[in-house]
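Q: What would this complex look like in 3D?
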Amino acid sequence: MPELPEVETIRRSLSDWIRKSRRQVEGLKVFREELLKNSTIEELQDKFGGAFIDSLERRAKYLIFNFSNHHSIVLHLGMEGRLLLDNKRLENVQLIVYFGDNSELYLDDIRNYSRLYFVRSDEVGELNSISKLGIEPFTNDFTFENFSALLDSRQEIKRLLLDQSKIAGLGNIYASEVLFICGIHPERQANKLTMKEAQRLYKGIPELLGKAIEKRGTTIFKYRDIDGSKGEFQNYLEVYGRKGKNCGRCGGTIEEMEQGGRKTYLCPSCQSLRKD
DNA sequence: AGTATAACCTGTCTGC
DNA sequence: TGCAGACAGGTTATAC
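A: Here is my prediction, written as structure tokens for the whole assembly.
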């Protein structure tokens, strides 16, 4: 489910929430042990009892909780995982964290794809999942030089944009959307994009993600912010999920295709297979 | 090394 | 109405 804008929305909400009051872990309960990828329930309970949440970071689609005991929890919400501050919408609870001020944080995931890693804070970057991630929009590493270097690949551009080891944070929704916005056909070979097209993508990616963050993410199905509220960016999607509807730019018909087992949406007349 | 496919889960929707 | 099959925001192990 959550791509970069959704995870960033959750991170900001949780940051506000810990700013309101120091959140000290009183205990935690794990309901599905497979959630824990590199630790046991006992280790988690031992380590985090009494610890305060100091800060929250995000790397790509991973949320990183930094605790006062110099350890961190790295969480990926998979396809449909969500973090909620009340138990009104729970469907399949994976984890409950109990805090000293009587608040509770629930990890809910009907599809069991969420994953939790537990590491020393100074070793977060060494986690396999984190170390493999590519350049991240909104950071100093996201230069045009770095971006254009990773376009040096025969891969189709849509597949490349989904490859987290190249660019980290885009998922199936925003990959389709950004290619529409930039007028690039999803099957174009990455290393055959023109300089202008590469520049449009380089600007277009953070622009689109920034707008989606402003609208607090895209709720198509399960995604919710920590208070249960939906995002609004689904109202601004131009192609994703709009098969058969009209293109807002040219009036043509939005089409659906498949790339690497995932749906891609495009406007064939705005996104030509030929170069500019 | 780099890239493509299958597998992981479970609820929901579609079409026969 | 019932049921098989397809599909869903993602990642990763395995196979070329």
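A: To summarize the key features: The two ends of chain A are 33 Å apart (CA to CA). The helical segments of chain A are 4-20, 41-48, 128-131, 144-150, 157-162, 172-181, 195-214.
Q: Very helpful, thank you.
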